[in-house]
Amino acid sequence: MKLPARLACIAALATLGACASAPLPSHITLDDGLPPLAKSSITPGIAVVRANVPELIDRPQLVLHSDGHQVALSDQYRWAEPLRREIPRLIAKDLGELLNSSRTAALPAEDAGFAVDFKLALDFQQLDAVVGKGVDVDVLWRVEPRGGKTFVGRSSFRQPLADSAANTSTLVAAQRQALRRIAGEIAIEIAAYQKR
What is the pTM of this model? Predict the structure, then answer.
């Protein structure tokens, strides 16, 4: 074998070896896998029709914020599905549990398969995982009751980390807790509206 051919083979083997040694990314989800609580079917029907998220975090990689306005994209941790799809499903699940309803879904109202009493749209301004601190949340939400006047609200807070271990798992868990808190604030408003 001539020298140029040998060098080409060595370069190809070195490239393959480098690819084999690079760690594969871990796929993560906001869903903690907890089973849903038993629900009644006579409570409100809610369709979570949309969750807009900023382009900064609407990407496959986990986005990590740090002090000094720095942002890092994690090549090691990637979302199993886009956040704009996962968030509505989890909010619908949480609303179902909080309002004791089996009639909640994350899809257009006309596709729900049940009478929709409320349509919910979410517009996230922030859902930022801040390394060592927690999750900064700012979301505008709009609830459209069937045959009633639309009402809007805003949830804005910092969700702290559950423990002092500042790692990816604690940040993702804080994001999930933040979604539960948002759903809790919306559920309070829906319940109050039903009592009018």
Answer: 0.83
